[in-house]
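User: I'm putting together notes for a lab meeting next week and I want to include a structural view of one of the chains we've been expressing. I don't have a solved structure, so I'd like a prediction I can at least talk through. The sequence is below, exactly as it appears in our construct file.
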Amino acid sequence: MRDWPPPDWAVRAELLQDSLERYFGARGSRLLNDWHPRVLGDRRSFNYWWLAHAIEARLDAYERGGEPSRLEQARALRDSVIKRNGRSLFNDYFDDMGWLGIAIARLADLTGTGDSARQYAAEASALWRHVRDHGWNDSAGGGIAWRRAQVDYKNTPSNGTFIILGTRLYRKTGESEYLDWALRAFGWLSTTLRRADGFILDGINRRRDGGVDADWRFTYNQGLYIGACTELAAATGDSELIDRAFTTAWACYAELATDGVLLDPGGDSGDAGLFKGTMYRYAAQLALAAGTSHPGAERLVALLTGGCDVLWRQALRADSLLAGHDWRVPPTGRVPLSAQLSAIIATEACARLRR
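Assistant: Thanks for the context. Below is the predicted structure for the 355-residue chain, given as C-alpha cells.
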C-alpha cells in the first residue's frame, strides 16, 4: 500500500547523511570506518573505491542543500584517501582509479574556481591518463584491464568508469582525445560484454581462456553502462544512446530485481554492498536526461523510488537509518560501509528525481 503523505526524499537524504557519521564516523584522518559495529582488526582495512563513492555521497548532499560543510566533508575524504594511499593518487586497480577520478572531477566542478579547483581537475585528468596509458591493450580486442597484475583481463567496471570520466573531461575541456577514447572504449564494451537484450556482463578472459563471465550478474555493471550511454548522449547528441540505456535498465530489473528491489549476489560482505548505489546514481541521471517526454522515464522513476521506499520501511530506526545488503529486511549482524553508501546514494538520487 502506498504511504501517505508521500515521502519527503530531501528530509530522508539529510537523515541518512547524518546517519553515516553516527554509525561509521571515525576519529582522525580515517574519517569513516568500514564496518558497523567495528572490531579491532578493522582499522587495518582501506577500501579506496568505497571512499571514492563516499566523496560523491557528500557531494550529493552539497548539491541538494548547498551546505558548505558537506563540501568540506567531501574535500576531507579526498585528502584522507590520498594520505592513506601513501600520498599517491594511483593504485593497482584501474576501476578503483576510475571511481576516484569521477569523484575528484565532480569535486573540481563544485569547488568553483581557484587553486583547489585547478588541482582537483588536474588530478582527475592524471587519473584518466594513467588508466589509459597503463590499462588499455589489445588483449581481448582492446579495452581497459581490471588491474596491473592481470592486464589481459578486461571488465565492465574499468571500462565504464573510463568512459564516464573521459566524457565528462571532454565536456569540461573540449579536448577531443577524451571523447575519442571514450567512444573507443564504449565500442569495445558494447561489442564484448553487452548481451542482445541489453544486459551487461562483468568481464572477459579472467582465466586467460577468452571466456566471458556470463554468471557474474551485478547491478553496478548495468549502472555503469547506463551512465556511459547517458554521458555520451549528452556529449554527442546521439539520442539513440538514451534508448539503449533504457534497454539496459529494463534488462537489469528483469534479471536482478525481486518485488521491485534490486539484489546482488555476495551477501552482506564487502564490495557488493555498493553495487545498487551505482545503478541508482546513473539510472536517475538517465531519467533526468530523458525528461518526462520519454515514455520510459516515468516508469524508471517509479521503480527507483519504489525500491528505495522498501529500504526506508525496513531499516528506519526512529531518527536514523542503518542499511543492510538486502533492502527487503532489516539489517542484521555487522553492516559494511559500502551498503550504507548505497542507501545514501539511492536516497539522494530519489531526492533529485522528486525535487
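A couple of points you could mention at the meeting. The first helix runs from residue 9 to 24. The mean pLDDT is 95.

User: Perfect, that's what I needed.
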